[in-house]
Amino acid sequence: MRSVRHLLASALAAALTLGVVVGLPTAASAAETYPRPGSGSWEIQGRGWGHGIGMSQWGAQGAALQGLTHRQILGFYYPGTSVGSVGNSTLQVRLMAHQDTGSVTLWAPQGANRLQVAGAGNTTRTYAGGYVTVDRADDNRFWVRHTRANGSAGPVHAFTAPELTVTARNSDNDNLGAVVGSSSSRGTWYRGTIQLVRENSTLFDVRNHVALEQYLRGVVPHESPSYWEMDALKAQAVAARSYVLAEIAGNSAGLTCDTTSCQVYRGRAVVNRAGAVVTPQEFASTNTAVAETSGEVRTYGGSVAFTQFSSTNGGWSKASTRPYLVAKRDPYTGTAPGDTRTTWTDRLSVSTVEAYCPSNGRLRNLVITKRDGNGAFGGRITEARVECDTGNRTLTNARFDLFSEWWRVTPPPTGFFLSNTLGAEAEIVFQYGRDGDQVLIGDWDGNRTDTITLRRGKTFHVSNTLRGGDADYSFPYGRANDVILIGDWDGDGRDSIAVRRGREYHIRNDNRSGPAQRVITYGHANDDVLVGDWNGDGRDTLAVRRGSVYHVKNSLTGGDADAVITYGRAGDDVIVGDWNGDRRDTFGVRRGNVYHLKNSISGGDADRVVTFGRASDEVLVGDWNGDRRDTLGLRRLS
After folding, report:
1. What PANTHER family does this protein's entry cite (predicted)?
2. What backbone phi and psi angles, to 5 degrees, belong to 460?
């Protein structure tokens, strides 16, 4: 059974102005409640850009800058996959700006002297100069209308075929691709061929049939900047090659697309009506990355792996359905210069969230109910709830047009900051109480999670959740000037209070008023006193400190100590906690904002050194998420 840890009683009194709840955090802890702000928006802190599954592109750049090869990068982000090889197959890419369209304009790039349009039965029409407009306005046919270079109308041809193939050719009859118009003066030049595929009597799709290696030239520089390290670009080339093949194998139509719904593909160049290049979409560095990894893929179980990737995972990848798409800490993401999306700030408007209210209701609270537990803030949001005057709605996607679903409302500058790991991040942040309240930490209801009780004079205000608002109950006990100790004195899993008067300890086994149920005498009146379960029997007992010497008792009795140890320095602040989850409390010493923690009742060097908060913060110790390990928290003054 777990017991709770505390500071020296003399260190517990501090003042702080506190007020409304601001928020909380992990899948295992209480919900984060964000009331509707009067300003009309919340200030947001976030991590990551995109879904965070598989390779982090900014992480690949960071890894390459640290000397990893592209295969090492891919091995890290897709553990369990192997290097494989494929041929240069032809892909069908849906051009999403031209789906279910009734008309499209096409022309030839510079270097080509004619445009060819081919239909069923080897029916081919050739158009020199100008452009063609294709539509399906009449008689369930494709109608191709030529406009000459001088602007005059050319011939009109009707094709009864279910699809047309369009290519631009030079005097040697080489296929130079074709241009698909995007405006009256611009278009995108694609390699391969353009396919116009009938959808119904009036609409059709525009697709690019292109060889895999040529396709990748139009993908890699638009997924990773072309100036990045070569091994980062090679990693992107292999990931993109693998991704598209696995995607196509996974859908019956055998299609991919050219947007972030698949992966970004922008063809060869943007050109003008004369076919001259205005903006290149392929670059020498990324062409090299594609060429030097030609045919290379990642495989798993004999098949090409579904190598998902995103801009940045924020420092921790997200698991998906494949065994090689795992959740893991990423030491490379956030290390590359220029990365502005591993951590970010933004603003979330009330109107964006309010749009999810049932029956167009008015938002009252946004509540984050679940996170995945991985990384800062308790990890990515996996479930949220909008509370409105018309009812509530549960959401499983809480991205709200932000860069990712890994975010929190910016915490206040003062309040309680609690960490679920012995690290630098505080996942639980909220405001609670009044000026002059004394903070006491304990598991008051036996649910294995520590929460906060506030003492005002001789009245104790107990909260069984880590939040602001009203206490769950209050009771008076002792005298206003008593020194208070907290512990599980009888091993029932619930913490209760004791008061110290000199060398006497008046103990209650419940949080109620009335006389003490037990009185013991131990140590000297001027000793520092510590509370902990030193032997793991589930009962808290006392230890007294004289300088750097600790006299530890394993029972609530007077007499001699059961163990005497020397640890730290006489001027150290001392904390007590079960740092490793072995059910035994041990000591830690605080020097500024550095904590030297021991995992045994012994002298010698610390087993772990942790930096947390500021030297001016009031430190708290507790098991905030019920995992049986004590971690740190702090209360910050303004």
Report:
1. AMIDASE ENHANCER, N-ACETYLMURAMOYL-L-ALANINE AMIDASE-RELATED
2. -110, 125
Most confident of 236-245, 518-527, 552-561: 236-245
Q: How confident is the model at residue 17 (pLDDT cuts 50, 70, 90)?
A: very low
- Give me the pLDDT at residue 513, please: 86
Cα–Cα dist 111/469, whole Å:
73
CA angle, 264 as apex, 262 and 268 as ends, to 5°? Answer: 135
Bridge partners, 211 (sequence order): 90
**421 half-sphere exposure, CB direction, 13 A CA radius:** 13
- Buried b vs exposed e over 426-460: b needs ≥16 C-beta within 10 Å? bbbbbbbbeeebbbbbbbbbeeebbbbbbbeebeb
Whether residue 634 contacts residue 616, with contact meaning beta carbons closer than 8 Å, is answered with: no
Q: Tell me the per-residue pLDDT of 326-345, one tens digit each, with 9 for 90 and over.
A: 999 999 999 999 999 999 99
- How much helix, strand and coil, in percent to the nearest 5, is found in the chain? 10, 35, 50
**What are the structure tokens assigned to 202, written together?**
């009036």
**Adjacent-strand bridge partners of 277:** 271
pLDDT reading at 595 higher than 70: yes
Four-residue CA torsion sign, 134, 135, 141, 143 = negative
